[in-house]
Design brief:
By secondary structure, this protein is α/β, with parallel strands linked by helices. The protein is 32% helix and 22% strand. Strands 3-4-6-5-7-10-13-14 form an 8-stranded mixed sheet, with helices on both faces. Strands 1-2 form a two-stranded antiparallel sheet. Strands 8-9 form a two-stranded antiparallel sheet. Strand 13, helix 7 and strand 14 form a beta-alpha-beta unit. Helix 2 packs across helix 8 and helix 3 packs across helix 4. It is globular and about 50 Å long.
Length: 329
């Protein structure tokens, strides 16, 4: 009998379950014969040498409409204009370094084009638009977090539009991964993206590029950005594929994550009857007290493969058409 290594990646909450007693079901499992695993590892090691190098992005490419200079790292995709763009949003008082491992993993394993910014007040994105000082994440008010969700994200999108039109990625397959603060920013921006008209490709309409959200340890009400507000939007709660993850041994994060799941589950296909490739809502409870990006790179939690598998199912394998945003060339 062939020896196998089985890693449960994502678990899904049963529809209608009580928050106090919540059974879970394996939704995605990675089953790899050990021989094949060794071969894949050797192939990946060879592929890693050929990956396009990461690019540091700043300067005029990333200045927000209110004058803030952002900094980011971009990992180019390997699938040309079919590369899935992924934006990774860090935790409060964190920075883009939290995602270095995941960014490289998604680039290597799924050919994704990954943009990892320092959001305003964090990392190298602290130059105040008002002059005479720097933004400090610990002192920022709710207004700055709203600017983060709109101004910062629109600036990052402009960078991706440029790469889309250079046929380096397919913006119509946009995925945003956010941890804690980043989850709130991702949800608010998704609502904006799905409802705000833009003049692109010789037409005026909401672009609706965000096709998937991954929320890691989402905070139900982060700094005045309650998640029920963007998730009340009927398009966001029903049309965007979502993966929600929180540590099973972190009561507060787990309660918030379940609250998010319970708010939107009725608007998605029934996980108990749908085939895996039709499911668009997943819930993960890794056995840990760790929160947010601290779960990344931890042996046994398998969060990176889970995220990659979700992106494969909901974006890589979906035929969203590429088009040039500047209109006809």
């Amino acid at each position: 009998m062939t020896s196998e290594r089985r890693c449960p990646l994502i678990v899904e909450v049963a529809r209608g379950s009580s928050p106090r007693r919540l059974p879970v079901f394996a939704a995605i499992a990675l089953v790899v014969p050990l021989g094949a695993a060794r071969l894949a590892w050797a192939e990946n090691a060879d592929q890693e040498k050929k990956l396009p190098p990461a690019e540091e992005v700043a300067g005029s490419d990333l200045v927000t409409s209110d004058g803030l200079q952002l900094s980011a790292t971009f990992y180019p995709g390997t699938e040309g204009r079919e590369s899935v763009p992924v934006v990774l949003l860090h935790m409060w008082k964190g920075d883009r370094k939290e995602y270095a491992g995941l960014a490289l993993y998604l680039q290597r394993e799924k050919g994704c084009a990954v943009l990892v910014p320092d959001l305003r007040g964090h990392g190298e994105s602290t130059q105040s638009p008002f002059g005479g000082g720097k933004l400090d994440a610990a002192k920022m008010g709710t207004d700055q977090f709203y600017l983060m969700a709109y101004n910062d994200m629109e600036t990052l999108r402009k960078f991706l539009v440029d790469r889309n039109d250079k046929e380096e990625l397919n913006l119509k397959k946009l995925c945003i991964v956010g941890a804690e603060m980043g989850a709130a920013v991702a949800a608010y921006y998704a609502a904006y993206d799905w409802t705000t008209p833009r003049r692109e490709a010789d037409r005026a309409a909401a672009s609706q590029d965000v096709k998937a959200l991954i929320m890691i340890s989402p905070d139900w009400d982060f700094k005045g950005l309650p998640l029920n507000k963007p998730l009340a939007n009927p398009l966001v709660r029903s049309q965007i594929s979502m993966m929600i993850v929180a540590g099973k041994e972190d009561p507060k994060s787990l309660a918030d994550a379940r609250r998010v799941y319970n708010l939107i589950t009725r608007y998605h296909v029934d996980p108990e009857t749908a085939e895996l490739d039709q499911r668009d809502l997943f819930f993960g409870e890794p056995p840990t007290k760790l929160e947010g990006t601290k779960m990344l790179g931890v042996k046994g939690l398998n969060l990176e493969p889970a995220i990659a598998r979700f992106i494969e199912l909901r974006l890589v394998d979906k035929p969203y058409p590429w088009y040039r945003r500047a209109g006809k060339k």
